[in-house]
Amino acid sequence: MKNWVISSISDNGINDLYNELGVHEIIAKLLIARGINKPEDINKFMNPSLDDLHDPFLLKDMDKAVDRIILAIAQKEKILIYGDYDVDGTTSSSILYRFFKRLDLEVEVYIPSRFEEGYGLSMAAVDKIKDNGCKLIITVDCGISSIAEVDELNNLGFDIIITDHHQCQEELPKAIAVINPHREDSDYPFKELCGVGVAFKLISALSTLLKIQGFAEEFIDTVALGTVADIVPLIDENRVFVYHGLRKMNDAPCIGISALLDIAGLKGKNITSYSVAFGLAPRINAAGRLGDAMRAVNLLTAENEAKAKELAMELNSENMLRQQTEGEILNEVIEYIEKEHDFARDKVIVASGINWHHGVIGIVASKVVEKYYRPCILLCNEDGVLRGSGRSIDGFNIFNALTYCKDLLEKYGGHEMAAGLTIESSKLREFNEQINIYANDNIKSGDLIEKIHIDAILEADNAKLEIATEVKQLAPFGQGNSSPVFVCKDFRIHSMRKIGEDKHLKLIFSAKEKLIEAIAFNMGALADTFKIGDIVDIVCSLDINSYNNVDKVQLVIKDIRLCEKEFVKDSFYSTVDNTIMYEKLALESSPQFDKLERIDFQSLVDTVNKHLSNGEMCLFLVNDVEAIKEVTYFLNNLDNKPTYKINIGDYLEERDINLYIIVNPSVESAKSLNQGNVFIFGRWIDQIYLEAIVNSIDNGRGFLYNNKLGVSIFDGTGFDREDIKAIYKFIWAVPGKVVMINDLNKTTTEVNSSYNRFLKAYSFKKCLEVLDEVGLINTTFLNAICVKVEKNDNRGKKVDLENSRTYQKIHTLLN
Fold first, then answer.
1. Which one of 200, 341, 585, 761 has the lowest number of neighbouring Cβ atoms within 10 Å?
2. What is the pLDDT of residues 748-777, one digit of tens each?
3. For residues 796-814, average pLDDT
4. Average pLDDT rounded to a whole number, residues 201-208
5. Domain boundary among 316, 351, 372
6. Residues 83 and 177 in one domain
7. What CATH number did the domain enclosing 734 receive?
8. Long-range interactions of 785-789: CB distance < 8 A, separation 24+
């Protein structure tokens, strides 16, 4: 289950933009959401120009670097380019190499080994390059933290120019020039260049002084490749690079990129930032992940088509080996997680293995995060020393987590979302405990629900070719300029079928008397969860499908669920557990409620309007399905129709929203309620639970509307002994001791079909709890829809369901 977060951008300015530029209101909203609301800014965004690039001499030390390189040109000195082994480093090295060769200079590229030397300048590398005959060394995409290494090179008589884009430390290397937009003393207007962007600015500065024409057009496709691969924001100069670089890739790419496009099956197709990120970049990266990254440089600097083809084929084979290696490690990691990881106790997944390839475990960690949506650290055991990579989720800074554990670590580094570390194997258990202590203090339950950020609601009438075409004009898409994401509500499934060896799902929706085509990649299994006729809400992007020279609009689905009415009802029951804390009690008047001001309908309207107009937070707390309907009806009929957010279980504050409906609020999150004015609404299941919530509200900030306190009824979610028997039979029909239920909703549908039952996912969950409590199985709920079930060796044993507290509690509430 994912949390859909819809943008709360106001309509202010949309009509003006629509009238002034003639763009559709959806496009106007997307532009405003990106902070682009002035005609001149919109023109630059929609029509990026190389003339919009900033003066390269605004970069600190650029003048010093250019002066030293011009001296090298005059004296025909040999230049060494020292790069990194990733795409950014190899593309940076390649464009500088080609530029210097164009000037007929003697130039050499050195790319360190990921496995023997590691990232950046190292003493081992210094020892290798000290006798190569060069006098000037230029680093690209590295060097900013190489204080000792630069000192050693200085002592050996080398001149060093650092070009980098990583964060600067307090001390800068003592080089002739240090070019980095992140320098504290830099006034450069754009900080988000990647390594190849900085290298391109160096070429630009040299070309200006040397009066060289056409340099941008020559290198821009390689610059775009490195920029997309390094996942920097595609705004400002980066947008210009990628916009023009993609045009060159489509029209006349350099020999190396042309060969790579061919081997990737992209030749003749429309090349987009997506093509680069998932078609070209992995093949370039594979060179340094599994072997010698110089092969990537040789490809990108190739002048012979046959040689380029040979290198492209080699990198393609390397990438296939990388995928195979990655898949093998991923299978091992998943097997370990599902057998050994305690999801109830540990929020960070930590796993280690022997012979896990260090070059790919970062990618595997990313896939683990994608599958379980928990931070993950994977470590490779090499002679008692563990080296590895970590990947995180939104809201959890993995670098800070490692800092908390630094006394156990030999080495670590990284940033909020990714990090690397080295630790002795004997300290692994303690490290796992310590990082999870930090995680338990810093990760809320709501943080473990993946968020999908939605730009706008897309009505059926607007799912048309003209708008899809306008949306594409916002490309290139990537970090900082994501492909627009829409939500479509109340679409009926008209037809669906599995395609691509059942991996994908092809659908046609009907809405407002229109038929709308859609594709759901890697979601073939959803055909067993939904049925034709279901009314659903979908999150999607708007695309154009071209076939036989005919263009049609197509929705690309990112998530799908039953329409909001059914989804909210299902979510209500999936989170109701924490509200059933005690046995059923009669709800009588209680002194705890004296702090609540009782208000009628008109007072409610006046109070909410007053607080909202003052910019204050308003929180509606409900513990009843009907109350959700009542609150949404009330809010939708206020004069100003405020934007509100429905949160299930926890108060998850979103920026720019100050009105929430909180369904089944957890007692743990109750303290945060004092950020706003709290309105208790509808019937409540448990009095003591309600009192715990009420007691957390500051005096004078709580309101009770309509005084309808009473026990809510679990409509349609009950179960009986036959339901429990059916689920038990289903579990034993699955081979093996452990049964993984990856989707409660899908499995519920399967059991209903096979055993003629009418269970809901919530009642299925409750039946599992009953079977656990009477000793027939052991269950571990990994997340809202994923359950690990272990069979116990007492099949056939007679049990009394009345011994299950869950069975007693639910039936007490139902009766």
1. 585
2. 888 988 899 888 888 898 899 999 999 999
3. 78
4. 96
5. 316
6. yes
7. 1.10.10
8. 785/1, 785/742, 785/743, 785/744, 785/745, 785/761, 786/740, 786/741, 786/742, 786/743, 786/744, 787/740, 787/741, 787/744, 788/338, 788/738, 788/739, 788/740, 788/741, 789/731, 789/738, 789/739, 789/740, 789/741
